[in-house]
Amino acid sequence: MTGADGGGGRRATAGRGSRALAKARGAAPGLRTFSGYRRQWLVKDLVAGVVLTTLLVPQGMAYAELAGLPAINGLYTSVLCLLAYAVLGPSRILVLGPDSSLGPMIAATVLPLAAAGGDSGRAVALASVLALLVGAVMVLASVAKLGFIADLISKPTMIGYMNGLALTILIGQLPKLCGFSTDADGLLGETSGFVRGLADGKAVPAAVAVGVGGVVLILVLQRWLPKVPAVLVMVLLAMAATPLFDLAARGVGLVGTLPTGFPPLTVPHLAWDDLAPLCAGAVGIALVSLADTISNASAFAARTGQEVQGNQEMRAIGAANLAAGLFQGFPVSTSGSRTAVAERAGARTQLTGVVGAVLIVVMLVLFPGLFRSLPQPALAAVVITAALSLADLTGAARLWQRRRTEFLLSVAAFLGVALLGVLPGIAVAVGLSILNVFRRAWWPYNTVLGRVPGLEGYHDVRSYPEAERLPGLVIHRFDAPLFFANAKAFRDEVLRLTHGEPPPRWVLVAAEPVTDVDTTAADVLEELRKALEARHIRLVFAELKDPVLAGLRRYGLTRSFGGDRFFPTVESAVTAFRAGTDAVWTAAGPPSGPGTDGDPPRADRA
Fold first, then answer.
1. Where is the composition biased (Low complexity) (predicted)?
2. What is the pLDDT of residue 572?
3. Which of 169, 273, 545, 588 falls 20 to 30 Å from 102 in CA-CA distance?
């Protein structure tokens, strides 16, 4: 008996252990990947990790300085976020790290708070707190399954935001590219400061040669030899040029020897007065990081046959930010360019990122002076080329050709970043996206329908001017839910359609696109019914969705209108109208309705 009990206990313990292991693998997808690791992947992951490191180091240092922080903190950040994502990230090859799109947002949040003390240590502490806050926002969003928040920024406004961000980064790096600095703030101030610096002769010719040459070299290699690590080649050539041309003596700033070793676990100090602005910055950074992560994850998942797991991605990015924040790091995001490099180098799993992190630590511990002769203008060249990759002028041109209103939204987002700053710019972008959604529901497309010989159904008379109509019947389609904001616009349009001579006997609403009717709209429909009946005009509906019709019943409209006002199809309503009249289909003149008289339809304007 004891033996049997002991066996059952062991089986129960084993069962609990296997369930715990399965639960751990579900919470940490990286463990699941490594538990099923294949030997043939090892060489490819190791090689890809070495190749990736050649990009991680210069970009990490450059993006740290873009964020207004010491270059070394970019390397600390890279190590921690790569290790955290390797354990918790659902994607096998997505690469995290300091990002060019987040750098200006971090600087805009941290530097005003750190400026009073002028202490780089305080800036690092604030940036670490910012990373912790971003991580907390991302983790909480994943728990609440709020991945859809990334959709708050529409493509046109994101294009404008990124174009404005690219210009802001470019202008901000030009003084460093030319070997001097400015105290200006904002795009206009930095532009003016750069022009004044050039006019005052502050530019260092050797720095200009290194910086401009670095930009040109990277762009040429990326264009004509995409498999060559352009950033690494430029960095190595710049470092070789330092002793060869004695750049330090010619006034070119160098990175110098980095601090040795790796920082200990550090809980950054925070003054309560700094919490509100840091929280505001964290929300904006989390939103941009989330949108960037989802888009990159979707693109690379499609190539590798994986599915995007938005909430797991948020949790993993949040954990990466928390890890970076505890080791003097700053907020991170996914990187499309670094992920593409890892993919081209043959990466199979997140071991590639682990190899990159280990190599950075080895460099910090054993070879801290490896990049001491790297010119500062070379780092500016790295940032400028990254900024150019953020810009999407082709996308803006497509918006101009396809939809002018969305092009104007893109321009407004661009101006928000350029004139107001990076953080207000993201608020402008989100606000414009939300307003655009509301605008489309507020002023939806609506039209009159007619019968087109040879085509089934009833069609927009703007698209088919030759469409036939029935005298005495107006078939009106309203392409939106009816709610408080557009109900009066619907009423006014219906009334306008009845002002002809003679007035119609029926106004038939082809209501299939109407997905909802709220209480305000219900009251407006009742008022409209009374106004039309006073003129002996019947308002009838066809193709109402069942939930919408059920709502009208709750509002009492089916009783006040009468059951004979609701038809299952437009055809059945037309048949009922013709049964009570002698109307025959006739060719129409110029279509009436909004958007005629030479104006484009409202949908085109939208």
1. 11-20
2. 95
3. 273
Q: Considering only CA atoms, which of 56, 68, 57, 61 is closest in space to residue 130?
A: 68
- 203 closest CA partner among 576, 352, 212: 212
Q: Under the phi-then-psi rule, with left for phi > 0, alpha for psi from -120 to 50, and beta for the rest, what region is 482?
A: beta
* pLDDT reported for residue 292: 79
Distance of CA 244 to CAs 208, 236, 239, Å?
A: 17, 13, 9
451 has which bridge partners?
458, 468
DSSP letters for 529-555: HHHHHTTT-EEEEES--HHHHHHHHHH
Helix (H, G, I), strand (E, B) or coil at 500: coil
- Residue 308 CA to residue 300 CA, distance in Å, equals 9
Provide the whole-model pTM. 0.75
- Let me know: does 44 contact 38? Beta carbons within 8 Å: no
CATH number of 446-605: 3.30.750.24
The pLDDT tens digits for 508-519 are: 999 999 999 999
Q: Which of 81, 82, 64 is nearest to 73 (CA)?
A: 64
Beta bridge partners of 570: none
| Bridge partners, residue 459, by sequence | 450
Q: What is the CA radius of gyration of the chain?
A: 31
Give the phi and the psi of residue 83 in degrees, each rounded to 5: -70, -40
State how far the Cα of 263 lies from the Cα of 261, in Å rounded to an integer: 7
Cβ contacts of residue 478 below 8 Å, gap of 6+?
444, 446, 490, 493, 509, 511, 513, 514
**Domain extents in the chain:** 29-433, 446-605
Pairing of strands 538-542, 506-510: parallel
